[in-house]
């Protein structure tokens, strides 16, 4: 068990013991939460140099469980941003050039890959070297950002 490896006893020596402990809690008998519908938002109106940021975490990134694993980190994919051919033409970049993705909180500068993605979107990895979106932009999905040639 992880607790034993950390030298912290929780008196659950086996997975079966942990399962019995959880089962002893019994079924939930409290009030059920009610579903409250969220009103839909209208689509953002974007200026020519703006896009909606979209992202997800890559398997190898700056995650806490990967700290100190430099050899593993060395196998991670290159950190890039993805934009559409139409956006690339409008800002004058091609694959490999650098773009700046910014908002009022901050910015990231990344090499770009021109790919098939919606014209109003820009994709970047959520937590990879150079693209710590939550820390630098305060947003990692759906926020309006400015996209320009760096």
Automatic annotation (TrEMBL):
<protein>
    <submittedName>
        <fullName>Unannotated protein</fullName>
    </submittedName>
</protein>
<feature type="domain" description="Molybdopterin dinucleotide-binding">
    <location>
        <begin position="72"/>
        <end position="129"/>
    </location>
</feature>
<dbReference type="InterPro" id="IPR006657">
    <property type="entry name" value="MoPterin_dinucl-bd_dom"/>
</dbReference>
<dbReference type="GO" id="GO:0043546">
    <property type="term" value="F:molybdopterin cofactor binding"/>
</dbReference>
<dbReference type="GO" id="GO:0016491">
    <property type="term" value="F:oxidoreductase activity"/>
</dbReference>
<dbReference type="Pfam" id="PF01568">
    <property type="entry name" value="Molydop_binding"/>
</dbReference>
<dbReference type="InterPro" id="IPR009010">
    <property type="entry name" value="Asp_de-COase-like_dom_sf"/>
</dbReference>
């Amino acid at each position: 068990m992880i607790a034993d490896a950390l030298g912290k006893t929780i008196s659950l020596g086996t997975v079966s013991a942990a399962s019995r402990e959880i089962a002893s809690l019994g079924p939930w008998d409290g009030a059920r939460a009610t579903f409250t519908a969220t009103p839909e938002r209208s689509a953002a109106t974007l200026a020519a140099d703006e896009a909606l940021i979209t992202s997800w975490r890559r398997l190898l990134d700056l995650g806490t469980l990967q700290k100190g694993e430099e050899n593993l980190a060395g196998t991670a994919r290159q950190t890039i941003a993805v934009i559409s051919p139409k956006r690339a033409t409008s800002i004058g970049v091609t694959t490999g050039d650098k773009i700046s993705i910014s908002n009022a909180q901050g910015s990231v500068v990344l090499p770009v890959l021109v790919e098939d993605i919606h014209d109003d979107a820009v994709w970047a990895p959520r937590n990879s070297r150079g693209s710590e979106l939550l820390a630098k932009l305060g947003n990692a999905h759906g926020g309006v950002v400015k996209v320009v040639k760096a």
